[in-house]
């Protein structure tokens, strides 16, 4: 075998794809026991964490004022772009693995491993961060006695580690790992209880805000600011005023606040990992995803509106806005309800972060990309026992040893990357010919057109004019192999253009605002090319396959989702990208040392899903 042939075979291994079909009864031993309500509770619990009790105060005080309601609206719409893509894929391939599986059937094995590897990172950091927040909340309720005792008895003076060991967070994660081992039904029940209490507390906060609040607090002026400052004699720390009114920091403040609020909606993707445990996954996953995002949006908007009606936005406490707001209106007893809601929100958020992690590990282990011992399922509880225990211990150790504030941005990169790949996968698959199992059984038909990739096929290149006419007028009511390859190529080129456009907007905002000719020309050229390719993609025939849910406004909506996600990723500091590089180097060692040789797709005759 020549060197070129060896390199070509190696490249083919990197883009091996899983077949798309899903057969009723698949699931590898996981129990189908989760209703739509269970999935909604899981999504709401994972998404509506402690941020609702803190984030609204921070953003309203320093970035948006009362217009924080608009920030959450913009952030919710942005999150829905990704949520709808997850919903379609959940209806199309309702199996464990979430974004990992979706990228495997569309983009290929290497991208799938990168996605799954980063999902694991996101869930580990998310679980450990929430456990630390739970511990900090208990510590604050006890007057910081716990943290002071730990710092005195077992101080840590090691770089990158926390100042003290957090035994409380360690025990909490191990306890909930035990709950997850008991079974998906039991985990869902605990999540529903915590989420229900959290929603009741938030409902009380919203109702209290509308009763005790003043509409004048949405119309504050400089005179109000000066009056409050004079009455306090300088004893009250006031935030920035802005221009006053409902939008005191202008449209830029709303956009900055929306970028911060976007991360408040991260977590709904855990619903997609329960595809093999849902009773009716093709209905429950789309409905659960949309319903959970809707509930979270109403809760965030309601709490932020109530908060800014109760207290002038520049008087909000950045660390404990809701307890201080109830003190402001003369309801000090309500602080205890807020504390109870915070603990329930943290508990459901922790379960929501821990639940999908072993499901992603299970899917990767079943595919041979991670060690197959991790794919063991308990015969009685029907849970991924080894993956659950290993992921729980890893998250517990992270919570025990590390101060995770500096790693939250790293978690966001993994999540946004997964969102982008899911949107790309929806964009590609809608334009591909249907894959029929009967065709796969024919000799020589093991690979579908999507599996061969955009460059496959025996036809030679067509003349230029004819090829361009074929792109604009495919001449077929349904997708063909030729139109599928064209759509794949256009989608890939669009993703690259959107990445370049995001980079320009992230690196040259000042030059664009100042009207720099070079920056404006580069931006205009990228936009023009993107619009042209979008038009070509729009002209390609879509698959008529009947699904319980389909993303509307194709291709615009998935492309908008990809652009927003890439732009937010590029806002991360260089230190975060360096940490990301270290994690990816660890993943590369596992993939090239084990996964690429042990992959289930290495056996062509083996049928997956």
From TrEMBL:
**Region (Disordered): which ranges?**
435-478
List where the protein spans the membrane: 33-55, 67-87, 99-125, 160-182, 189-211, 254-275, 287-313, 333-355, 385-404, 410-431, 486-506, 518-539, 551-570, 576-594
Recorded catalytic activity of this chain's protein:
L-ornithine(in) = L-ornithine(out); L-lysine(in) = L-lysine(out); L-arginine(in) = L-arginine(out)
Q: How does it sit in the membrane?
A: Multi-pass membrane protein
Where does it live in the cell? Cell membrane
State a single Pfam family of this protein.
Answer: AA_permease_C
Lineage, top-rank taxon, reads Eukaryota
Q: Cite the InterPro entries for this sequence.
A: AA/rel_permease1, Cat_AA_permease, CAT_C
Please tell me whether the keyword Membrane is annotated for this protein: yes
Keyword Transport assigned to the entry: answer is yes
Query: What are the UniProt keywords, alphabetically?
Result: Amino-acid transport, Cell membrane, Glycoprotein, Membrane, Transmembrane, Transmembrane helix, Transport
Principal subcellular localisation of the protein: membrane
**Domain Cationic amino acid transporter C-terminal: from-to ranges:** 549-599
The record's listing under NCBIfam families reads: 2A0303
Q: Which family does it belong to?
A: Belongs to the amino acid-polyamine-organocation (APC) superfamily. Cationic amino acid transporter (CAT) (TC 2.A.3.3) family.
Protein name as it appears in the record: Cationic amino acid transporter C-terminal domain-containing protein
Organism annotation: Pipistrellus nathusii
